[in-house]
Amino acid sequence: MTINVLVVDDSALMRKVISDILSEDQEIRVVGTARNGLDAVEKVERLKPDVVTLDVEMPALDGLHALGYIMSECPTPVVMLTAVDPKSAERTLNAFEYGAVDFIQKPSGNISLNIMDIANDIRLKVKIASRVDLKKLGFMEEHVNSRENAEKKQHVPAAKAPEDTRKKHFSNQKILAIASSTGGPRALEQVIPKLPGNLKVPVVIVQHMPAGFTASLAQRLDMQSQLRVCEARDGDVLEPGIVYIAPGNYHMEIVQKNINGRTSEVVSLNQNPREQGVRPCANILFKSLVPLYGQNILAVILTGMGADGADGAEEIKKAGGKVIAEDERSCVVYGMPKAVVQRGLSDSVVTLEKVSEEIVQMLR
User: Fold this and answer.
1) Whether 50 is catalytic
2) Active site (annotated) includes residue 308
3) Checking phi first, is residue 276 left (phi over 0); if not, alpha (psi -120 to 50) or beta?
4) Other Cβ atoms closer than 10 A to 181
5) In terms of pTM, does the model score above 0.90?
6) What backbone phi and psi angles, to 5 degrees, belong to 311?
7) Has 133 been annotated as catalytic?
8) List-wise, which residues carry 4-aspartylphosphate (predicted)?
9) What SS3 state is found at 244?
10) What is the full per-residue pLDDT of the chain (364 aa) written as tens digits?
11) CA distances in angstroms from 14 to 43, 145, 301, 327, 341, listed in the order given
12) Distance (Å, rounded) from C-alpha 174 to C-alpha 190?
């Protein structure tokens, strides 16, 4: 089946390059291009493409507002194209709330002469987007309102660890580890803010995102959550009630170090070769936890393409730990959880809305 794509970018050069990249695949046909958001909205309604690639930064009507119109008037799977800077990262995360399936990071800004370096990634993400059930995307009014309410919430300092206690090491008996990929930012916003502020375990997360985006994701989740959420730094000592997100382009492992005469669990970052085609890799994180926490690990596998996390989940299970997998009914892409379920590694399979409740129950 041919996938019809509309390419939207304010740069004529980028429209041509992206169209050529997509057209190299016999399963993909570029049915049109648009130079800005207004042009895109009109052509989506007229051409009825299967997928839209949509630039974030454009004149007349930018990508985010165009996405809003598309998803409300003519719902279509959209893959965002974005540069790497704090403003673009924030807009990209907003795009997930309005229904974007995924995003592609331009290698070198808005005019990326080296975009051919990610040609395969562009084609793959377009193909994945064409298979997504739009009903599973997070552009529902209820979800947007819940985020706005969370951001308006006044954070009381006592709801998070006080500054003086954050510097102390707590003896960690249990740990919660989460893996997600395509559709993950939206999924994490459905899970982390629902966890109670008195959660007595550290939380470590691998979300497949490039460098420059995980810091914005951590800040956003921090604003919405009772728990403190941060982008992990090399040498961070794990503390209960704090969520550590692996930074983009770095594998994250947890190791033990002697700090002031006391054994502590510490974040260790590296840029070793990609595994499963990704960095950070959930398998690497999960496997590093096994010798330290054993049966006290609770792993959660959320939506995502591929099978990252399954090998690590198998080692966690062998050590006596537990695994929760997101149910196919709520997954944007049923890949990573499917690999876990098919291998018989899941102790529980629940829809996204019930994941946080299941976490609390299984940590008791």
Assistant:
1) no
2) yes
3) left
4) 27
5) no
6) -65, -40
7) no
8) 55
9) strand
10) 899 999 999 999 999 999 999 999 999 999 999 999 999 999 999 999 999 999 988 888 888 899 999 998 899 999 998 876 667 788 888 888 888 999 988 876 555 556 777 899 999 999 999 999 888 775 544 444 444 444 444 443 333 333 333 333 344 489 999 999 999 999 999 999 999 999 999 999 999 998 889 999 999 999 999 999 999 999 999 999 999 999 999 999 999 999 888 899 999 999 999 998 899 999 999 999 999 999 999 999 999 999 999 999 999 999 999 999 999 999 999 999 999 999 999 999 999 999 999 999 999 8
11) 18, 35, 36, 38, 41
12) 22
Q: Which residue in the block uniquely carries the two structure tokens 């930018």?
A: 62
For residue 79, the surrounding DSSP H or E stretch is strand 78-82
Q: How many helices (H) and strands (E) does the chain have?
A: 13, 14
Catalytic choice (55, 208, 222, 225)? 208
Helices of type H across the chain: 12-23, 37-47, 63-73, 86-97, 119-130, 141-152, 163-166, 184-191, 214-224, 282-293, 310-318, 336-342, 352-363
Looking up tokens 């690590």 gives 312
- Read off the tokens for 300: 């959660």
Q: Strands 297-301 and 262-270, how do they pair? A: unpaired
Residue 31 burial by Cβ neighbours in a 10 Å radius (0-12, 13-18, 19+): middle
Domains of the chain, first to last = 3-137 (3.40.50.2300), 156-363 (3.40.50.180)
Annotated active-site residue in 10, 25, 222, 308: 308
At 150, list the tokens: 């969370």
Strand 28-34: give its sheet, edge to edge. 28-34, 3-8, 51-55, 78-82, 102-105
